[in-house]
Amino acid sequence: MVSTAREENILASETLLTRDEQVYDITIIGGGPTGLFAAFYCGMRDATCKIIDALPELGGQLATLYPEKFIYDVGGFPKIRSRDLVEQLKQQAFQRGPAVELNQRVETLERREDGTFELTTDKQVHLSKAIIICGGIGVFTPKALPGEGADRFPDDIHYFIDNLDKFRGKHVLVVGGGDSAVDFALMLDNVATEVTLIHRRDQFRAHEESVKQLYESKVKIRTFTELQTLDGHARLESATLVNNKTKETERITIDSVVSGLGFSAALGPMNDWGLEIENNEIVVNTRMETNIPGVYAAGDIVTYPGKVKLIATGFGEAPTAVNNAKTFIDPKARLSPGHSSSRKE
Fold it and tell me: For the domain bounded by 5-140+264-342, which CATH number is listed?
């Protein structure tokens, strides 16, 4: 039989993939906070575990987008910096030695005749008895910054803050009215020479405690204000703002812009796995089961009646997913292993 050019290309790409022949009990797709805690709990249930993540480091959005941000709503921590929370979660998860594969995006998920799941990434084929999807918000891309001139100053426009020192002594404009924008402004308040926050409305969508801190800070707040133009010569030098009610304009000196407009999220290849999806989220039941037997999900990527998107919520969903995956793998296993405080080391 003569193969077509397309078939030859597929065959060629498959030969480039390496195959991990070990069949893990549970493979976790996504290495953010929920995925890391799920990996730890796999160890508590004596389940072999592998984490696969498309990013170059563990920690998800906290590590990639908001490493300097403080987290206030995780039990046991009155306040903790994102990067420190990620480090604690990694130490906790690595006690049980999970396998980790980074810079790999899972493209397909298929069940073999023997019931084993085969996950194919852009680099490797992985085998697992059960799957837990902890993909956060999925594949995310920053929303475009409005106003003219944004494309002229790519080095001066930022969509996240990974290092506060790069803003030290600068005049910074923050755009947006949600959690990200308000958090960015508060983070920069004691670092930058001047921080101006603009929002097209007068009501902020951020957490009320953060908004209270914002109004108590030195940040210059401009409501009903939008970005009209960014200007400069060799570098960014100024921004023209417009009041969307009075139509009056204001020109301010700035060195950098931080966009807090958020990200557009997409499930990417997961849309083709046969999962039940609602509003770009994976539908699960109270056992964190998806509509595919043996595939579970937890964290911000899931939806169910009453779902609240918090890191703390993901920390509760992860053990639920792991315990039910354990009984799926071994029907004789207990659903609840008891409390960790009663576990012998």
Answer: 3.50.50.60
55, 56, 70, 141, 238 from 59: Cα distances, Å: 9, 10, 14, 17, 35
Give start-end residues of each CATH 3.50.50.60 domain in the chain: 5-140+264-342, 144-261
**Edge-to-edge strands, sheet with 281-283:** 277-278, 281-283, 302-303
Architecture category of domain 144-261 in CATH: 3-Layer(bba) Sandwich (3.50)
Question: How many angstroms from the chain centroid is the CA of residue 57?
Answer: 12
Q: List, in sequence order, the alpha helices (H) in 217-310.
A: none
pLDDT band at 54 (very low <50, low <70, confident <90, very high): confident
- Cα separation of 327 and 319, whole Å? 12
Model-wide pTM > 0.85: no
User: Rounded to the nearest 5 degrees, what angle is found at the Cα of 67, between the Cα atoms of 31 and 234?
Assistant: 120
Compute how many other C-beta atoms are within 10 angstroms of the C-beta atom of residue 311.
Answer: 21
| φ, ψ of residue 184 in degrees (nearest 5) | -60, -45
Are the CB atoms for 270 and 297 separated by under 8 Å? no
pLDDT tens across 247-287, in order?
A: 999 999 999 999 998 776 678 899 999 999 999 899 999 99
Integer Cα distance of 28 and 131 in angstroms: 6
Distance separating alpha carbons of residues 25 and 322, to the nearest angstrom: 10
Helix (H) or strand (E) holding 198: strand 194-199
CB atoms within 10 A of CB 19: 12
Q: Give the whole-number percent of the chain exceeding pLDDT 70.
A: 91
